[in-house]
Amino acid sequence: MRVSRTQAAENRETVINVASRLFRERGFDGIGLKDLMKGAGLTQGAFYKQFESKEDLAAQASKRAMESATHRWSDATAANPENPLEAVISFYLSMGHRGERMDGCPIVALGSDAARQGQDVKASFEAGINEHLEILGRFIAEANGEQSNSKAMAILSTMVGAVLLSRVVNDHDLAQAFLDAATGQVREAVAA
């Protein structure tokens, strides 16, 4: 049965969305094409009509995951428009975000995997990271009138590292301590 162009485009978007979530949960190498396509409700044969390779899908899914993360920052700031930087800090460095394996930060979930991928995957992450840095830089400037790329980099690095460390420990109290320590350091960095 032939699939219409519209349906093929919808199928492609579905695969990218599902891959974005499953890669964050299991890693790029933690899921095969058969299971990924099954998760999207499609056959493995449909994959090759939509993507050149698994790396092509990984690049598209990484871009989608980074876009999703940016939208989540926007949602957090919409809830606290008076202090958008605090809104992002509170959302990002929370136990709730720590527990979001499929929908959480792709930098945390896939950063070390992405470092071993090809240029296209890295480019997707780089574009998303640059967008995060631009947003943080704008929020810092709004908070204290200072334009500082290095401060935005330090804040993003601290937040990503804290969520990563909180995820790799079993001890709930230690996980919370990593998030709390990072929250304090980030707030101090903004105020300095």
UniProtKB/TrEMBL annotation:
- Extract the Pfam families matched here: TetR_N
Q: Show the GO MF annotations.
A: DNA binding
Check the record and name the Gene3D superfamilies matching this protein: Homeodomain-like, Tetracycline Repressor, domain 2
- DNA-binding region in chain numbering: 32-51
For this protein, the record's SUPFAM superfamilies field holds: Homeodomain-like, Tetracyclin repressor-like, C-terminal domain
Entry keyword annotation includes Transcription regulation: yes
Q: What is this protein called?
A: TetR family transcriptional regulator
Q: What is the lineage of its organism?
A: Bacteria, Pseudomonadati, Pseudomonadota, Alphaproteobacteria, Hyphomicrobiales
